[in-house]
Amino acid sequence: MKKRLNFKSWLMNAVTTFAALLVLLSGALVFVGYKATNPAIRLLESNPSHYDLAYEEVQFSNKFDQISLSGWWIPSEHNSLFNTDKAVIFAHGYGYNRTEMPFSPLQLASRLNKEGYHVFMFDFRNSGMSEQAPTTFGGNEKTDLLSAIDYVSDTYEVEDIALMGWSMGAVTSIMAGAESEQVKAVIADSPFANLSEYAAESFQYWTGLPKSFATGTTRAIGVMVPGFNPTDVTPLYAAQSYPEDKGLFLIHSMQDGAIPYSESEAIHQSASGSELWLPEKGGHIRSYFHFESEYEERVLNFLDRHFIKHEPFISDPIYFS
């Protein structure tokens, strides 16, 4: 009888311990998921006037879930008489905002502006001055960017738009570019190819936890953020649908420790007509910092080549009497 009682007591203790460990593990996965979808919000530390740029403060809403988004419209006065207005929309990386990245986005915006491009800079949800909502690594951010595209097109009557994104913003730009007819070209600096696969491979890098926790955390995030499915964040597949007249330029440092350059190589191989530049140094989204002049020239050359395809064709000379 005593042995039977001891075994029953041991079994109850084992079940209790297992249940406690399961609760702790579930709690840890939820906590990591919460931290991942709610990164610290950085404040804006600069504005276009610091680069002698005229600009307009704008507020617009995500047309899918009405999240309030904040940005700047930076118009260019350098368009020639017969050129169609062209705009470049910037898309920042995870945990950053429209001005705060490892380089100065406003410096690049200033150069594009001087070359005749309007620039639209905005904060994704849960970033900068935009409304707080869970960050979804490109999932719901795609609808933020699609809403920005429509806002620029409708408000400023700009028909030719390019997207330029970094990291999460690069992923978002590739996916939004595949869905928007207004987008004529996309520049993607340091994207991953498939969120679910990338999350599993890089989980330990970002969290310090064993790779085996990745699947559970991804599922926890899917539960915590209704309507978000990590498997939908696949720029690799989106890039496959790009038509021949829509340009895709991938930039990725070969020394990127956060997202391997092989991710951009995979997208490049699947996207017919895409272009790829692999700087030999730079780290994650730091190529512009290390190769400023070459970076600007490559970007401008790409934009000029792809926008000219959509310029109005004038077959006969125009005479003025």
TrEMBL record:
AB hydrolase-1 domain mapped to chain residues: 87-207
UniProt-listed Gene3D superfamilies: alpha/beta hydrolase
Domain of life: Bacteria
Family annotation (Pfam families): Abhydrolase_1 (PF00561)
InterPro entries: AB_hydrolase_1 (IPR000073), AB_hydrolase_fold (IPR029058), DNA-binding_regulatory (IPR052920)
Family annotation (SUPFAM superfamilies): alpha/beta-Hydrolases (SSF53474)
Record's protein name: AB hydrolase-1 domain-containing protein
Species assigned in the record: Shouchella lehensis G1
Source organism phylogeny: Bacteria, Bacillati, Bacillota, Bacilli, Bacillales
